[in-house]
User: What shape does this take?
Amino acid sequence: MSPTKRPKERIGVYVCHCGSNIAGVVDVAEVSAWAGKELEQDGVVVARDYKFMCSSLGQELIERDIKEKGLTRVVVAACSPHLHEPTFRAACARAGVNPYLFEMTNIREQDSWVTTDKIEATKKAKALIAAAVGRVAYQKPLESLYVPIDPNVLVVGGGVTGIQAALEIANSGQHVYLVEREPSIGGHMAQFDKTFPTLDCSACILTPKMFDAGNHKNITLLTWSEVEKVEGYIGNFTVTIRKRARYIDESLCTGCGVCWEKCPKKVVDPVFEAGLGYRKAVYVPFPQAVPKYPVIDRENCTYYLKGTCKACEKFCPTGAIKFDQQDEILTVKVGNIILATGYDLFDARKIPNYGYGRLPNVFTSLEFERMTNAAGPTLGKVVLRDGVTQPKSVAIIHCVGSRDKNYNNYCSGICCMQSLKFAHLVKEKTGGEVYQFYIDMRTPGKTYDEFYQRIIQEGANMIRGKVAEITDTARHPSEEGKLIVQVEDTLVGKQRRIPVDMVVLSAGLEARADAKEVAQKFGISCSADDWFIERHPKLDPVATMTDGVFVAGACQGPKDIPASVAQGAAAAARVLSIIGQGEIEIEAATAIVDEATCVGCKECIASCPYQAIQYLEDKGKAYVQEALCKGCGTCVGTCLPKSISLKHFTDEQIVAEMIGAMQTMKSFETVEAA
Amino acid sequence: MPQMIDERAKAGLTPEEDLSLLHEVSMKTAGDSHVEMCIQCGTCGGSCPAGMDMDHTPRAIFAMLRAGMREAVLKSNTPWMCVSCYYCTVRCPQEIHITDVMYTLKNMAVQSGMVQDSTASDFSRTFINFVENYGRSFEIGLAGLHNLIHPRLALRLPNMAPMAIGMLTKKGMSPLPPKRIKGMKGLKKILKRAKELEAA
Amino acid sequence: MSDRLSSLRETIEKILPDVDGVIALRTGPGGIVAPYLFSKEHPGELAELALWPKEPVPDTLKIILRAHPDAKLAIVCRGCEERGIVEMFKHAQFSLENVTLIGLQCDQQEVESCQCFKPFTVHAKLTVGQPVEGVRDPLMAKVMAMSQPEKLAFWKEEFSHCIKCYGCRNICPQCFCNICALEDEKWVETGRLPMPNPSMYHMVRAMHMTAKCVGCHECEETCPADIPMAVQFRLIARDVKEMFNYEPGAVMDQKPPQLLVLEEGEYENTGLPH
Amino acid sequence: MSDYIFYPGCSMESSAKAYYDSVMSVCQALDIQLNEIDDWNCCGATEYLSLERMPAYALIARNLALAEKQSNGSKTVVAPCSACYLNLAKADHYMHEDKAFGKNINEALAAGGLHYTPGKLAVRHLLDVVLNDIGLEAVKAKVVKPLTGLRVAPYIGCMLPRPDYGNRYSDTENPTELDDLLRALGADVIDFPLRTACCGGHMTQIGPGTAFELIRRLVSTAADQYKADVMVAVCPMCQMNLDAFQGQMNGYFKTDYHMPILFFTQLMGIAFGADAKELGFGSEFVSAREAMSRIGVQTPEPAADAPAKKKPAGLPMPPPLVHASQTTTHSKEAGQ
Amino acid sequence: MYEPKIIGFLCNWCSYRGADTAGMARMKYPPNVKIIRVPCSGRISPELVLRTFREGADGVMVLGCHIGDCHYSTGNHRTAKRMPVLKKLLEYSGIESERLYINWVSAAEGEKFATVIKDFTEQISALPPFVETMK
Assistant: This one.
């Protein structure tokens, strides 16, 4: 029944209980006994089940069998190979069996966890093991390829996470390219006034780090820049970066500020001031910006719009204004990449019943941050949209756009603490009444809950209930001229209408609007909510499925400042450990052409997504360049005479795997029919 | 043993079999109601235009369903106060089909005979009697009949009579029942089969 | 017919001095018609020039060009044969740099005999005869009209006559591989007669013909069991044209669609879920 | 000429005769051909659903089954009543979403020799058809008598934008489609914050206190806060609750509102130059005569405008959100 | 009622991970589909699908990354072009073309994976066993 004459191999089968994860549903003892008996003809010489195959004892069990029983092939039926394939490959290698002679089949994620019927789950496990045994006999030893690691590192995103990562790496002596899309590094943290729970000044703790990053001899700072293209693989990335024209000659600019003082064009700043304040058409986002050079906002600059003005040019003492400057395209070589691209704020206009954008005195959390910032548009005063009136009562609404399937299903994590901080700031700055509307109070960080208790003590009114609507339609004279927050006080069980002067929406955190494109550019994947996916949620939180590409901070999921900084440092440590190795192993499963049978029709060449296949004119044959081949096998799917094959995924292997599963399924059918 | 049940009742505990109440409601609601997903946030109760007049807010009803408080839920006026405005449904962060659940609770209340104030259910009954016999509804006859059944409603509404007269004069509405649809026989068969299926 | 024969002869006579040879059909000894390389050394042989029955000349071209890559040749080809030559060229089987195509347009009678959908050349600079309209094989509509069990029964019956002589593959000008998947036990149940149902041999072959079959019907001509296998190829060819706007042999530098990335709007034609 | 399957609903034959007359007039003007479903039955309103689920949906589905059978090329069922519209759309949606449920309903229908294929038909409200199939430009082209000077409160109500299975409306809480239409007629449209608040539904019959409060909110906000001349409805039940019960509401709260409640098609008819009587004017409880007389004479009465907003040098507001649905087409045929 | 035998060819990066995601969320689905992991759906040649039917499979699934999200950039484009043609061939040969199923499931779409498996198993159960049809 085998596709070609089946090779004689000595195969060991190991069935993992995974505690009760597998054994609770699959009858593992029965499965291993069955494999030892029914699959003997296929070469199985030993079959065992064990509580935790991935434990050191489990691995030793395999290693001992390899040595004592002379196993030439190993099959492990356990969890997903994405989790433990490397573990068992390494165990095999230690005992002298080439790691590619090992096969893993998934009876946890794809069997015991998804099947209700225990008998059916056991049968499925048998079929999957038979498939793996079928396949493993045809597997061939492969030698891994090693490539040297380029010690330079790319860090994308200049928020607190990216700055931390860049500094850690630069301090160790390696070179970092730090790319930031805005004119200055600093990110969201630079917009805040106070940080929870310590209430220390955000700028005071961030500015020194920004300065260090801007002046480090090992950091090339590329602001107002974006990554356009990424090619290559771990150790050998080639990155194309667009350095957008600032229209400022950086070698001449001293950052004196005359240009933005003199610029007559005032525009709303939607980024740094969160739309609550203004900047000029030539600007630095904030006084402590790093680098100090301004940029000209071409879309709003009078000169670009009308052809006249040039006030900045006239007054610039060093002649640094360059209206004809062009974008620069840079190509850098790096060995590793850290993505720290941060988050976007949920757009509160999407919730019509909260009236943001329609009702003037409804503000977002980021607007409120700017309002409380001493360097912000109101110089730190808490006022209504008219710019002067101090509110006597403020409602702060949690979970805006978070924990809501209509918007974002997840908890944004930071909003509870942020809202409590706002309550404190309102009390401190206005002495007015504060209402907190929350669903559940989540304060799990160090000294976070103490902060919550402090705010209660300060007199904030806590109302448990998700706000239904905010309206200016009064039902009662006492409500006239106010914003009315309509809510069910769920602890009382009654609907309440609370009139206030101002509402602050604690908008949730979202993945960047272009996260998907960025992920695609760097070859990583996004979750359904567009957050970047880490390699393992617990054990490998900053690596990704793409070797050499790491994620840190809020681009991976909502995070507060301490967690972001920790991840930035963690990613840096991972990168440094790779650089320290000097070289790295890459996938050995590449395509190969059988020259004897290749007819030179060039179909594989056209079908390769990577231009990895060459046509040898002299021989009239195709040829795979191993270093370029990524091992997708699309060429194999194309080749009519099957002259091209993919190592570790050959037709023999796949057909034998399929037959193993089919035969077992059929044998159950026969037994049941009898 | 009976003593033990009393003890449980005293302790505010409901008999265990009623923990199936939530599931029952879910099963009896058309489509996927997501009713078990409630996070008790109160968006529904806060949104409800009739919330002020309800015994329990919809949120509280979901908590009571979870607790298996069958009698309290089915005797509550909450579902009967629902005006089908669907604010709760579109705002619910868990996408619970709250309005549809209210219909289910009304169905269950009527079937179990636990309805406390029958004004609303009788109105529905009167309404569908016309539909089941004529295939069409009959607004003016409906209002009249409904007020005959519930004279205290009419007392509460002394202005009802002029309005009914207005219907006849201003709108030229007919005081006669609607014309029966042609396919009444077929419709009756359909409804009969549907009722059997509902009972199954 | 004689008109076309004499004007073909004139055309060949004209071109013969400039080339090393002209591939065309010749009535040989015993009246057997076969491809032949006419040369200026033997101009008299042109008296034996023949038009019909057609023979797979693209293969002859390949054999000669493989042996003599620099030869300067002309070839008399019909519409189907021209498409076959173009496909072989696309698949790097030979270079057409030194080859002159002489298009022979089929007449109505020949079209009927082959049920050909496109009985004229489009690339050849020199042509002989007047192009006539193609026809659609009526069997295509007949198969399409069948229900699923009827189709199954129809092919079961047809393929039951197959003796696995591999004649259809051998004659096909597009089957130029050195080794063949149809001889591999992995894909085809070799050495089993009658064929199991469904016939892997014919299914795999039909898949290989996707975007390759030029509709020359040589396979059906050569089949000793008269199996109308080309109907499947034509039906699929129609789908490929609808989905990816590709027709084998029609455009010189158009690559087969299944090798390439999806173009704008193609995905919508595939019927795959979104 | 665009062809549609038409489900009028019971009210159109009785209390909402004015709606029926004006719909017919407007559709004729816009070349909309409405083919009434032969032998349709009542949709059951919210009442049948309150008592028994399966029969209620079977009752609704009978109409869909008839429509599917009688459909002659058109796959769109148009209902002018929001409640009918939602019931039909809901039955189609749940039969589609919950396969077992759909099977049961079809089993019931089979007892009457009928069948409905879920998803086969698109159920739409007349407003949606006018806006998205006919379009504002075509409507504008028909206007001969712009409603200049008439302050109109656009009132959509609940069941049109919610739950909005087909994503046809820009917003479930603040849809501006009706505003756009009325503006195209030349009316002075107020930014009515309660455009989708509840009219009281069946509570006028069973819990009048609750209903009166809901009516009061709508009428008083339109009248006092926004000085509207008339309020425009898209549903017979909304119109009836606000119009017929306005007097009782006044009695209940000791107020004195006189807010005429008109159907959007009545105003369209006027703008298209049709005769007021043929559009059913005069059958409303709260007379629209005074309000309409203002545009009857050509000189528009100076509206009691709210004082022009002077922009103080305050903080900037965020720009309005552009809905994805506004950039794409709203009209969606069934079966897509 | 027979138990349909189904083979699912899943790409390593999206669909196989999608199956893992379904597992991690403990979503239940029928056990009929046996998964074979391949690097990319583009690896699946029509011959492999046909061979699987020859072994008596009642249904074959090919699941890959969404178009545009392929780990190998455009490997799945080839799948999207090859497999519809194979479906047509099945149809013309008198084999129910719904026995071959192609869809895209991302690593995050555990729920979609479970639904796809449920629906396809149901769809195949409605057909007679493949070997019966071929008799």
